[in-house]
Amino acid sequence: FDPTAPSLHVGNLVPVMGLRRLALAGHPVVALVGGGTAMIGDPSGKSAERPLLTAEMVAENAAAIGAQLRRLLG
């Protein structure tokens, strides 16, 4: 999960649902919140790069997303 924002979004729904189903079936699940892509721009065909985040902002976003994932997958 990409911590470019402080919260999960609708694009995360399918992966979270898949992890939840695996957890309910008794499998161990691991959700990775990475910070690499949040630290660089995203020129993927867009007219402008996404704003660059500081390491502190990425850490805060990752912590918030981690808490959401723990609640959903717990």
Overall pLDDT: 88
Radius of gyration using CA atoms only: 14 Å
The assigned structural class equals mainly alpha
Distance between the termini: 16 Å
What shape does the CA trace take? elongated
Taken as a percent bin, the fraction of beta residues is: under 5%
Mind describing the biggest β-sheet? none
Q: Roughly what percent helix?
A: 40-55%
**Ranges with pLDDT <50 over ≥5 residues?**
none
What series of H and E elements makes up the topology? HH
Number of strands: 0
Query: How many helical elements?
Result: 2
Quaternary structure of the protein: single chain
Keywords summarizing the entry:
74 residues; mainly alpha; 42% helix
Descriptive notes:
The chain is mostly helical. It is 42% helix and 0% strand. The protein has 2 helices and no strands. The longest helix is centred in the C-terminal third of the chain and has 19 residues, at 55-73. It is elongated, with a radius of gyration of 14 Å. The two termini are 16 Å apart. The model has no long low-confidence stretch (mean pLDDT 88).
Compact summary:
Helix content is 42%, strand content 0%. By secondary structure, it is mainly α.
Indicate the topology.
Layout: H1 13-24, H2 55-73
